[in-house]
Design brief:
Blueprint lengths: L21 H20 L12 H18 L2 H11 L9 H17 L2 E15 L6 E5 L5 E4 L9 H4 L9 E2 L4 E5 L1 E3 L5 H9 L8 E5 L5 H10 L4 E5 L2 H4 L24 E2 L24 H6 L8 E4 L1 H8 L32 E6 L1 E15 L4 E11 L11 H20 L6 E8 L7 H17 E6 L8 E6 L4 H8 L7 H5 L5 H8 L1 E2 L4 E2 L10 H8 L3 E7 L17 H8 L5 H19 L7 H21 L5 H37 L8 H14 L21 E3 L7 E3 L1 H12 L3 H25 L4
Parallel strand pairs: 4-9, 6-7, 7-8, 8-10, 13-14, 13-15, 15-19
Antiparallel strand pairs: 1-12, 2-3, 2-11, 5-11, 12-14, 16-19, 17-18, 20-21
Helix pairs in contact: 1-21, 2-11, 2-18, 3-11, 4-11, 11-18, 12-16, 13-18, 19-20, 20-23, 21-23, 22-23
The chain binds 2-acetamido-2-deoxy-beta-D-glucopyranose (NAG) (7 copies).
GO biological process, one term: proteolysis
Enzyme class: hydrolase
Keywords: Carboxypeptidase, Glycoprotein, Hydrolase, Membrane, Metal-binding, Metalloprotease, Protease, Signal-anchor, Transmembrane, Transmembrane helix, Zinc
C-alpha cells in the first residue's frame, strides 16, 4: 500500500518542506497545533498507531484486511439477494418500503450502529397497471393489423410471478396517445438528429423511433422533443442485445442475451434529484421550488408520450417503414437482413399510434444509513453506497450490489467481533432509494447534508451493479487513481480460467482486459452520471470511486438490463456461475478500499497525480478546444494569455504537490525513529481532504444545471452517462460560437480564470502559509 504507516514529524518542521524563514515556520507550526487541538485533538489524544513501527502496521493492515475478505461468503450474498429481490420493488411502492426495512434489519442484525431511514417526499411516475401501454398499427381502412401486448411474459414462474412485473413503460413519459408518421433516428443523439435533417427527413410532428445504447435514454427523448417529435419509441436492437441470434437456444433463459419480448425500462428525467426541489432537499416541511408545469417547460420532464418496445415489436414497425434506406452505420439486425429505412411513415398508408398511460405522484422514499464508528477519527467518514430500488426484481441492477454491501457490512462486523480490529475512521453504509428515477435518494441526501459531508466525508465508494463477469472496471478522480488500482492487487481472482492462466488477482485480469497501454496501468476514467456517486462529486466535491465488473465490450450495459428477467437465476446460472465468485470479489474489493481509507494514517490521496493529469491530459484538451474557436487574432491572444496563466498554475500545483509528497515520504522513512505526532497527521489529512473541495464553485458551472458545481468534472449535457471536462469553459465556448460577442468572448476567459482560481486554491491548501 502506498501510504501505509506514514509517521509524523515534529510540528516544528514545515509540512511541505518549503524553505522558509524561521519565524514563518514557527507561526505555521503553532497555527497547525491550535487548529488541531480545537478541532479534533481533544478527542483523540492517543492513537494505537503509536505503538507500532511501520512494518508491523503493514502486516496488521494486511492480515485484518485478509480476515475481512475471507469472511465475505457467497452463500450469504445469495441469501440476501433472494430476500431483496422477492417482489418487484419500484421506488415509492410498499414493496420497496419492505426492501428498505429488510436492508435495515440485515444491517442491524450484523451489528451496524444507528441504522435508520431518511425519508424524502418526491415526485415519481407510474404506468396504469390495469391498462398496459401499446403500439397499434392500423390499415387506412381502420382495421388493426398489429397491437403490442405491452407486457413481457413470465419465463421462470418461481421467480417472476409477481403482480404487474411484465409491464413495459418508461418513468415520466407524457400521458396520452400519439398518432403520426414514424421516423427513424438511429441512437437519438445530437449528430443523428442533425444528419437526419441533412438527409431531408423532418422530425417535427412525427413519432421518433430510436435505438437504445450509446447514450442515456432521457437525453434521446429530450432531443426528440426539442426537434418537435410528438411521441417517441425506444427499442433494443438485436445487434446489441441478441448477438448470437433470436432463436430460443441463443437467448435467455439459455443464455444471457435478451429474449424476444423483453424490454428495457427506465427513467426519462433530464436532470437529477426530485424534479420539484432543485438544490434543496425534498423534506416534507420545506417548500418545493418548482412546479410540475415548470419542470415540463424547462424540459426536466418530457411532455410527449414515450414507450419502450422489444425487438419483436420493433420489427413490426421497421418492416413497414417507407423512405430512403438509413445509412449503413444506422442499420441493425432486427429482422435479420431487413434494411432499416428513415421514413417518414409506412408503406401502404398504414398508421401508427402509441398509447401511453402515465401518472405523476408524490411519494415517500427512504434511504437507509448505518455506521461502524471509527475508533480514532469517528468524524471522518468513509462512505459506501448502492441503491436498492429497481424497475422490476432488480437482481442485477441494483440488488447484486445491495446483497454484496450487506455482506461487506456483516463480514466487517464479524471481524470486529472476532478480532481486535476496528476501523480507525467511521465507515458509513448507504442504501439509496429512487436512484432509478434520477439519482433521487442520493441527490436529496447530498443536498440535505452538503455542509457536513464537505467537512467529514473522505471518499464515497459506489457500486451500482455487476454488469458482467470479465473484469473489474473502475472510474475515479485522479487523486484516488493509484489507490483504486493498488487495492485490486489484493483481491484474489474469482475466475478459475483466469487463475489457471496465471492471473492471480483481480488486478491482473483488469490490466489485461482494460489496459491503458501507454501508462502501463488499467484504464481509469473520471465517472460521469448514471449512478449515485454523481451528486457527491459534482455537487459536494467529495472524491468518488465508482466500480463494477463488466464484459469486455464497450457497449453501455448487459443485455438483460432493466428487464423483468433480472432475477437470481440470472446471477447464479448465467452471469456468475462459479458460486457467485464475482459478487464475492466485488465485496472484497469494496472492503479492501474501505479498510484502506479507514486505517491508513495518511489518507491515500495523490495530488501530484492530479497535477500530472492536468498537465498531460486536461490542458492539451482545453488547448485544442480553444484553438478551434473562430475568433480574431487579438481576441485569440487574450484567451491564450489566460490559458497560459492556468497552465502556469498547474505547474505550480505540480511543484507544490511534489514537495508535499516528499515530506510525507521523508516521514515515512523516519517513522520508526520519530515519535508519532497525531497533530501533524491531522494537518496533512486536513489538507488532502480539502483539495477536491477547491473545485466546487458554489455559483455552479452551467446555467442549465446549477447543481453541477465542480469546475473540472461534470455530467455531460449531451449524454448523462459520460463525463464532461471543464464544462464551464466548454459552455462558454459554445455560447460564443452560437453568438459571437465581446461579452461572450470575455466569458470564455472568465471561465478559464475560474478553473485557474480553483487550481490556485489547491496550491494554497497544500502550502504552509497563505
Ligand atoms: C440474409 O441474407 C443472406 C444472403 O443474402 C442469407 O444467407 C441469410 O439467410 C439471410 N438471413 C436472414 C436472417 O434472413
Ligand atoms: C391520462 O390521459 C387520459 C386520456 O388521454 C385521461 O383519461 C387520464 O385521466 C390521464 N391521466 C392522468 C394521470 O393525467
Ligand atoms: C457482532 O456482535 C454483535 C453483538 O454481540 C451481534 O449483535 C452481531 O450479530 C455480531 N455480528 C456478527 C456478524 O457476528
Ligand atoms: C462480451 O464480450 C465479448 C467480447 O467483446 C463478446 O463477444 C460477447 O458477445 C460479450 N457478451 C455480452 C453478454 O455482452
Ligand atoms: C460469464 O458470462 C458469460 C455471458 O456473458 C457466460 O456465458 C459465462 O458462462 C459466464 N462465466 C462465468 C464463469 O460465470
Ligand atoms: C502519485 O502520482 C505521481 C504522478 O502520477 C506518481 O509518480 C506517484 O508514484 C504517485 N504516488 C503514489 C504514492 O501513488
Ligand atoms: C468565422 O467568423 C467569421 C466572422 O466572424 C465568418 O465570416 C466565418 O465564416 C467564420 N468561419 C467559420 C469557419 O465558421
Amino acid at each position: 500500500m502506498p501510504y501505509v504507516g506514514v509517521g509524523a514529524q515534529k510540528a516544528s518542521t514545515s509540512l511541505t518542506g518549503t524553505p522558509m524563514v524561521k519565524a514563518y515556520i514557527a507561526i505555521a507550526a503553532s497555527l497547525v497545533v491550535v487548529i488541531c487541538i480545537t478541532a479534533i485533538g481533544v478527542h483523540h489524544s492517543e492513537r494505537k498507531f503509536n505503538k507500532y513501527n511501520k512494518v508491523s502496521i503493514d502486516d496488521i493492515h494486511q492480515s485484518d484486511a485478509r480476515t475481512i475478505q475471507d469472511n465475505i461468503k457467497s452463500e450469504n450474498i445469495k441469501k440476501y439477494l433472494r430476500i431483496f429481490t422477492k417482489d418487484p420493488h419500484i421506488a415509492g411502492t410498499d414493496a420497496n418500503k419492505k426492501v428498505a426495512y429488510a436492508i435495515a434489519s440485515a444491517w442491524s442484525e450484523a451489528g451496524l450502529e444507528d441504522v435508520h431511514t431518511l425519508p424524502y417526499e418526491v415526485l415519481l411516475s407510474y404506468p396504469d397497471f390495469e391498462n398496459p401501454n401499446s403500439v397499434v398499427i392500423k390499415k387506412s381502412s381502420g382495421d388493426e393489423v398489429f397491437r403490442s401486448k405491452g407486457v413481457s411474459p413470465v419465463i421462470i414462474p418461481d421467480e417472476q410471478s409477481g403482480k404487474y412485473a411484465g409491464h413495459q413503460w418508461l418513468a415520466y413519459a407524457g400521458n396520452g396517445s400519439a398518432s403520426a408518421e414514424v421516423v427513424y433516428v438511429n441512437r437519438g443523439n445530437a449528430n443523428d438528429f442533425k444528419n437526419l435533417k441533412l438527409m431531408g427527413v423532418e422530425v417535427k410532428g412525427k413519432i421518433a423511433l430510436m435505438r437504445y445504447g450509446h447514450g442515456f435514454r432521457g437525453d434521446k427523448v429530450y432531443k426528440a422533443q426539442q426537434a418537435g417529435a410528438i411521441g417517441a419509441i425506444l427499442f433494443s436492437d438485436t445487434s446489441d442485445v441478441a448477438q448470437d441470434g433470436v432463436e430460443s437456444e441463443h437467448v435467455y433463459p439459455k443464455t444471457i442475451w435478451m429474449p424476444n419480448e423483453a424490454v428495457q425500462r427506465g427513467s426519462l428525467m433530464h436532470g437529477d434529484g426530485d424534479p420539484l426541489s432543485p438544490h434543496y432537499p425534498s423534506k416534507k416541511e420545506l417548500f418545493k421550488g418548482r412546479t410540475i408545469d415548470e419542470a415540463k417547460e424547462e424540459s426536466v420532464l418530457p411532455s410527449i408520450p414515450v414507450l419502450p418496445v422489444s425487438y419483436t415489436t420493433a420489427l413490426q414497425i421497421l418492416k413497414r417503414m417507407s423512405g430512403r434506406p438509413a445509412p449503413s452505420d444506422w442499420q441493425g439486425l432486427v429482422g435479420g437482413n431487413l434494411t432499416y429505412k428513415l421514413g417518414p411513415g409506412f408503406l401502404n398508408g398504414e398508421k401508427l399510434t402509441i398509447n401511453v398511460h402515465s401518472e405523476l405522484k408524490t411519494k415517500r422514499i427512504r434511504n437507509v444509513i448505518g455506521y461502524i464508528r471509527g475508533s480514532e477519527e469517528p468524524d471522518r467518514y468513509i462512505m459506501l453506497g448502492n441503491h436498492f430500488d429497481a424497475w422490476v426484481y432488480g437482481s442485477i441492477d441494483p440488488n447484486s450490489g445491495t446483497a454484496v454491501l450487506a455482506e461487506v457490512a456483516r463480514a466487517m462486523m464479524q471481524t470486529i467481533n472476532e478480532t481486535s480490529w476496528r476501523p480507525a475512521r467511521t465507515i458509513v453504509f448507504n442504501a439509496w432509494d429512487a436512484e432509478e428515477f434520477g439519482l433521487i435518494g442520493s441527490t436529496e441526501f447530498v443536498e440535505e447534508f452538503v455542509d457536513v459531508l464537505q467537512k467529514r466525508a473522505v471518499v464515497y465508494i459506489n457500486m451500482d451493479c455487476i454488469q458482467g463477469n470479465a473484469s473489474l472496471h473502475v472510474d475515479t478522480v485522479p487523486i484516488l487513481e493509484h489507490i483504486a488500482i493498488e487495492a485490486a492487487k489484493h483481491v484474489p481472482n474469482p475466475s478459475k480460467r483466469e487463475r489457471d492462466r496465471g492471473r492471480k488477482t483481480v488486478y491482473d485480469t483488469w490490466m489485461k482486459v482494460f489496459p491503458d497501454k501507454k501508462a502501463g496501468v488499467p484504464k481509469v476514467r473520471v465517472p460521469g452520471g448514471g449512478s449515485d456517486h454523481a451528486p457527491f462529486l459534482n455537487f459536494a466535491g467529495v472524491p468518488v470511486i465508482n466500480f463494477n465488473y463488466k464484459n469486455y465490450s464497450t457497449f453501455d450495459t448487459y443485455p438483460l438490463y432493466h428487464t423483468m428477467y433480472e432475477t437470481p437465476f440470472t446471477n447464479i446460472h448465467l452471469m456468475d456461475t462459479e458460486d457467485l465468485g464475482v459478487h464475492r470479489a466485488i465485496g472484497q474489493y469494496w472492503a479492501e478500499l474501505a479498510k484502506t481509507f479507514a486505517d491508513e494514517v495518511i489518507l491515500p490521496m495523490n495530488t501530484t497525480h492530479l497535477a500530472t493529469i492536468m498537465i498531460r491530459s486536461y490542458l492539451p484538451q482545453l488547448k485544442a478546444s480553444i484553438s478551434g474557436i473562430n475568433v480574431s487574432r487579438t481576441d485569440f491572444e487574450d484567451i491564450r494569455t489566460q490559458y497560459a496563466l492556468l497552465s502556469k498554475s498547474a505547474q505550480d500545483l505540480l511543484t507544490m504537490s511534489k514537495k508535499f509528497q516528499e515530506t510525507m515520504q521523508f516521514t515515512q522513512h523516519s517513522f520508526s525513529q520519530n515519535p508519532y505526532d497525531p497533530k501533524h497527521v491531522n494537518a496533512v489529512n486536513e489538507r488532502l481532504i480539502s483539495t477536491e473541495r477547491c473545485f466546487i464553485n458554489p455559483r455552479g458551472v452551467s446555467k442549465h444545471n446549477p447543481s453541477a458545481r465542480h469546475v473540472l468534472f461534470s455530467v455531460s449535457d449531451s449524454d448523462s452517462y459520460s463525463n464532461s471536462l471543464m464544462a464551464g469553459i466548454q459552455n462558454a465556448i459554445d455560447g460564443y460560437e452560437s453568438s459571437p460577442s465581446k461579452k461572450n468572448l470575455q466569458e470564455i476567459i472568465n471561465q478559464i480564470s475560474i478553473v485557474q482560481y480553483s487550481v490556485i486554491c489547491v496550491v494554497n491548501t497544500l502550502r504552509d502559509v497563505i
